[in-house]
Amino acid sequence: MLPIITYLDLETTGATPLRDRVTEIALIRFENGIEVGRWQTLVNPELPIPPFIQQLTGITNEMVQRAPTFADVAAELSGYLEGAVMAAHNARFDHGFLKNEYRRMGVTLRQKVLCTVKLSRTLYPEHRHHGLDALMQRHNLVTLARHRAMGDVELMVGFVRAASAELGSDRMRAVAQELIRSPSLPSGLDSGLLDEIPETPGVYLFFGENDLPLYIGKSVSLRERIMSHFSGDHASTKEMRISQEIKRVEWVETAGEFGALLLESRLVKERQPIYNRQLRRERQLCSWQIETNPDAQPLVKLVNEAGIQPETLGNLFGTFRSRRQALDALRQLAEVHELCPKMLGLENGKGACFAFQLKRCRGVCCDREPIKIHYLRLMQALSFHRLKSWPYPSKIGIREHNTVNGKTQIHVFDQWCHLASLEDEAEMHEVLASKSVFSFDLDTYKLLIRQLRNPKLEIISF
Fold first, then answer.
1. Model pTM?
2. Each residue of 27-51: pLDDT tens digit?
3. Cβ-based neighbours of 303, under 8 Å, separated by 6 or more
4. What is 191-271's CATH number?
5. Which of 30, 232, 317, 421 has the most CB atoms at less than 10 Å from its CB?
């Protein structure tokens, strides 16, 4: 099919290259259609094989106990791969594991790869399934060692021979060469996707078998970012899992990066994709509010997200994902600035606080420091964390324009809330006339704070 090709299969302790390891390697190397080498070996993964994997593959901990490690066989394996295209069924899995195994040795593996799943999809698009079991049934292939490395390699070779006999060697060679040239897409995606992805800002959504997104991301270049997910070597568990599960990609173009950031933040909160964690909505968001009376005790109280209102923003300090995080931050602040834990509500009891005995409080709790001085020091200590009040008399719009796709958007805000991103100015009147419902969102607040520092920002005052 190709001048030099090595068919390879791995068995592993699991599906995660960063954590799991190789337990068996098998390969057959062909040069100009002639088999010139056949090699297989068990590999000591240097960690236990899970019972489920032992049952699936038949490879037990006892079998690999005295086997060579990957480092022991790496040089021999490299000899079989040298100058060849490596063919594997779901090649991203095997290639990802090999790259991680070599990386642990400080070696970078650079290898041309052919996925026989994609080869089958391209040659037989009328069929839905292209796993090895489906190929066995479709092409009348037989093996007594399914889920063992050499057994699966022989199935791949059998499939290529059967397809070549049916479709012709020229057709096989042309398709294989095209797949090698094409960027590496997961086997569940149509290669025609490459021609459709725009090189403009926007948000993309990865889907599996249903309408629940696997992952939502953003970029100033959708094509470049989407393809970066599929051109890597599965250095992260998340990328590996997405690659295994993805069946569909959708995207939404925006006028610029700011619009993409806003849309990504909103969609992640609305759709709750499986592999987005950082932007998911934290419903325990809270902030510290200072009492206006210096004699009050405690001097601060914790306000949850529902209690954050426009009129109180300027008197709130810090944003925390949980009550525990807020308390830890306040304790650290008290220790650094020698504030009294009792006055802050962090300690109960009568008399001087424990921090005073350790000389970490200046004594407001035992009349050694004036209450007003302590109050002013608290205000100063928290000043860096103060939330900003809305600096405009009413709603504003931020205009973004993209000269590449000609898209213009106006992002409308009020009291740090993102109300809408409009492409049609005719919709502006409806948005401006509507009454804003305040709902504080930390991600939007941070995005807008950062955007307002841009000296080239085009702000529309309403």
1. 0.61
2. 999 999 999 999 999 999 999 999 9
3. 286, 287, 288, 289, 312, 316
4. 3.40.1440.10
5. 317
